[in-house]
Amino acid sequence: GENVEQHPSTLSVQEGDSAVIKCTYSDSASNYFPWYKQELGKRPQLIIDIRSNVGEKKDQRIAVTLNKTAKHFSLHITETQPEDSAVYFCAALSPNTGNQFYFGTGTSLTVIP
Amino acid sequence: GAGVSQSPSNKVTEKGKDVELRCDPISGHTALYWYRQSLGQGLEFLIYFQGNSAPDKSGLPSDRFSAERTGGSVSTLTIQRTQQEDSAVYLCASSLRGGTSGGGTQYFGPGTRLLVL
């Protein structure tokens, strides 16, 4: 089945700096890659997603890039703010696994004011 | 409804007892997922329902875990003879459509925090 690895597990950045979180996947057929943000004690919420027919997607301060050849996708947050502090999860969906979303283990991001 | 709801929000039980967790998906969503999240860990897939089709149970960790979805809407996750390692947050998510038919956006419920003493 699919295997998703996420790095780093923890990340601290100064307010205003950029943060990058990277995920790799194993199944080359995976075609949908969402990113979720989970604040402490709250439910995960989708912040951005990308499908395999595009290489980059941007939404204000967040962007996701996908490299299908290398089988990795990354979340980029620019001009970080303290409210960006949370745990971020990547996930991958493959036709080979039908219905299962495989999640990374999460990155705890701390933005230092 | 306005979003995915789950009940109870917290559950404390004794080892060996059975527990039942409930999920109300967003109205009209055909896909429903159950996940388990241990403290500080990622999301572990448990089971997936798509409409009235037979569920994908491939993620259930043992035969003590089972789930039902009645009428293609409300779902219950049952854990029999609970063990301490079952302690976790159990999250439910629904999406308008599921699987690879476009990878529908999942909306998560607030979770049920289960503690097995």
Euclidean distance between termini CA atoms of chain B = 34 Å
Q: Order of helices and strands of chain B, N to C? A: EEEEEEEEEE
Q: What is the CA-atom radius of gyration of chain B, in angstroms? A: 13 Å
Major β-sheet annotation of chain A:
6 strands, mixed
**Percentage of β-strand residues of chain B:** over 45%
Instruction: Name the helicity range of chain B.
Output: under 10%
Structural class by sheet pairing and helices of chain B? mainly beta
Shape of chain A: globular
Straight-line N-to-C gap of chain A = 41 Å
What order do the SSEs of chain A take from the amino end to the carboxyl end, as H and E?
EEEEEEEEEEE
Mean pLDDT of chain B: 89
Biggest sheet of chain B: strands, sense, closure?
Answer: 6 strands, mixed
Pick out the low-confidence regions of chain A. Answer: none
Question: What is the percent of helical residues of chain A?
Answer: under 10%
Folded structure, characterized:
The complex is a heterodimer of chains A (113) and B (117). Chain A has 113 residues and is mainly β. Chain A contains no helices and eleven strands. Chain A has strands at residues 4-7, 10-14, 19-25, 32-38, 45-51, 56-59, 62-67, 72-77, 86-93, 101-103, 107-112. In chain A, strands 2, 4, 5, 9, 10 and 11 form a six-stranded mixed beta sheet that branches. Chain A has a five-stranded antiparallel beta sheet with strand order 1-3-8-7-6, with no helix packed on it. In chain A, a hairpin with a 7-residue loop joins strand 9 (86-93) and strand 10. The model of chain A has no long low-confidence stretch (mean pLDDT 93). Chain B is built from no helices and ten strands. In chain B, strands 2, 4, 5, 8, 9 and 10 form a six-stranded mixed beta sheet that branches. Chain B has a four-stranded antiparallel beta sheet with strand order 1-3-7-6, with no helix packed on it. The chains are: A mainly beta (113), B mainly beta (117). Chain A binds chain B through residues 6, 31-32, 34, 36, 42-46, 49, 51, 89, 91, 93-95, 98-106, and chain B through 31, 33, 35, 41-45, 48, 50, 56, 58-59, 91, 98-100, 102-103, 105-111.
